[in-house]
Amino acid sequence: MSTQSICLPAEKREQLGKAEVRRMRRLQDKMPAVVYGAGKEVASLAIEHRHMLKALNNEAVYSQILELDLDGKKERVVLKALQRHPYKPKIMHADFLRVSAKQKLHMQTPLHFINEEKSLGVKNGGVFTHVLTEVEVNCLPADIPEFIEVDLGAIELDGSVHLSDLKLPKGVELVALAAEEPNDMVVASVHTSKVVEESEPESEADKDGEAAEGKSAGDNANKGDSGRK
Question: Which of 9, 47, 151, 225 is the most exposed place for a label (fewest CB within 10 A)?
């Protein structure tokens, strides 16, 4: 469980509708959001865009319990969905789910790779490929890990790490392995680096030189034929 605490100031939105949302974004630099779950009604929120961007700079925002400071009253939530502008650095909408201490959650947890450069595979000329960068876990809110560490130090050339090789904190299980048909996916693998040698593009000068040589060779051949006649 992370010791970091991310708090997002928010306020309830009384006026709804597209026109109000556009006005809020343009004039107040705020973004719309909703919070739901835990047997309570869905609430429409407004969050200052700068506060949301600051929270998103922290990797833990995607995998940890957050605090919504809703008009002075704090609620424990997790970020479930995020809508971004297609080309501007703007957050358009966010969905938050209230959490219960007794209800397990499915969360995406980032993977942190360590000892990659010290691994046996790399020392023998290999290069690692990170197949997964995060995994889905199932656990109680109090057990949510900030990240899961993947030690690559003992991986030999042409070796790999699977989900079943990961060391999980107490109370945490991987959704892929707990399914009816477990999927023990590859997390990372190390193989020999393939270097493809590319020929240098031929310059115009080289082409002209080759053409001149070809012409000269042809002229000499013609002269030889003339002499034999």
Answer: 225
> What domains can be seen in the chain, in order of their start residue?
7-98 (2.40.240.10), 105-192 (2.170.120.20)
Mean pLDDT value of segment 130-140:
96
Distance CA(29)–CA(186), nearest Å, equals 43
State the Cα angle at 123 between 117 and 129, rounded to 5°: 55
**Side by side, which strands form the sheet with 105-114?**
148-151, 105-114, 134-139, 173-174
Q: Give 67: exposed, middle or buried? Use CB within 10 Å, 0-12, 13-18, 19+.
A: middle
Q: Within the chain, how many helices (H) and strands (E) appear?
A: 5, 13
Q: What are phi and psi of 99, to 5 degrees?
A: -115, 150
Which pLDDT score is estimated for 203? Answer: 55
60-103, pLDDT tens digit by residue?
888 889 999 988 889 999 999 999 989 888 899 999 999 998 89
Instruction: Output the CA torsion 79→82→88→89 (10° steps).
Output: 10
